[in-house]
Write a structure and sequence with these properties.
alpha/beta, Nucleotidyltransferase, domain 5, 5-stranded mixed β-sheet, 3-stranded antiparallel β-sheet
């Protein structure tokens, strides 16, 4: 099973090419570069888009625009290549990259996205129930490091790759996939444009 996985939900986009659990290549860049990165990964592995069996895409939560870019890219590729698509939570991918850690994504507007009692939530950083000694990862953990560490949590160094939702973990969490149009984004809250006064 050859999987092309990517996530554009946060400020750092990741792309990976994975065959049966083995990472053939991985790139970290920007959302606008995902297709170029995918092409380079395939070329480096001596493969073509026609060799792909599955697409795995990060469905958020994160930047509204970033999530839309990822889904649009996945749907376009799926249509062109007749491939199934698996949507993977960006928070789940972060957690898979740092087992036992709590994933925290910067939701902007002074909020974070995280998982509370099994549900994805948007909340103020000081409302996060921090467990003493537990590790917190993600760009939200970096941005609100002081709040988390003052409450007894641990945050890896800012430049740690543990803060990036690595696409290799999306591939591992993907499952079999299905029709691209059935993959739903995880927005958690309405986009800023919908909240703006008329």
């Amino acid at each position: 099973m050859l999987t092309l996985a990517f996530d554009t939900a946060t400020g750092v986009a990741t792309t990976a090419l994975v065959r049966d659990g083995d990472v053939l290549g991985e790139r970290i860049g920007r959302a606008s570069e995902v297709l170029a990165e995918a092409d380079e990964l395939l070329r480096a592995a001596g493969l073509t888009p026609g060799d792909l069996d599955l697409l795995a895409v990060g469905v958020g939560p994160g930047s509204f625009t970033g999530v839309r870019i990822g889904l649009a890219t996945a749907r376009g590729l799926a249509l062109a290549l007749d491939l199934p698509v698996a949507g993977v939570s960006t928070l789940d991918a972060l957690a898979a990259g740092s087992p036992g850690a709590t994933p925290v994504i910067d939701a902007k507007r002074g909020e974070i996205f995280t998982v509370v009692s099994g549900r994805v939530r948007s909340l103020a950083p000081d409302a996060l129930q921090v467990h003493r000694g537990r590790t917190y990862v993600g760009d939200g953990a970096v941005r609100y490091r002081d709040t988390i560490e003052d409450a007894g949590g641990a945050v890896p160094p800012d430049d740690s790759e543990l803060h990036i939702p690595r696409a290799r973990f999306h591939a591992g969490l993907a499952g079999e996939g299905g029709p691209a149009e059935l993959v739903e984004p995880v927005y958690v809250r309405a986009p800023d444009a919908e909240k703006a006064p008329a």
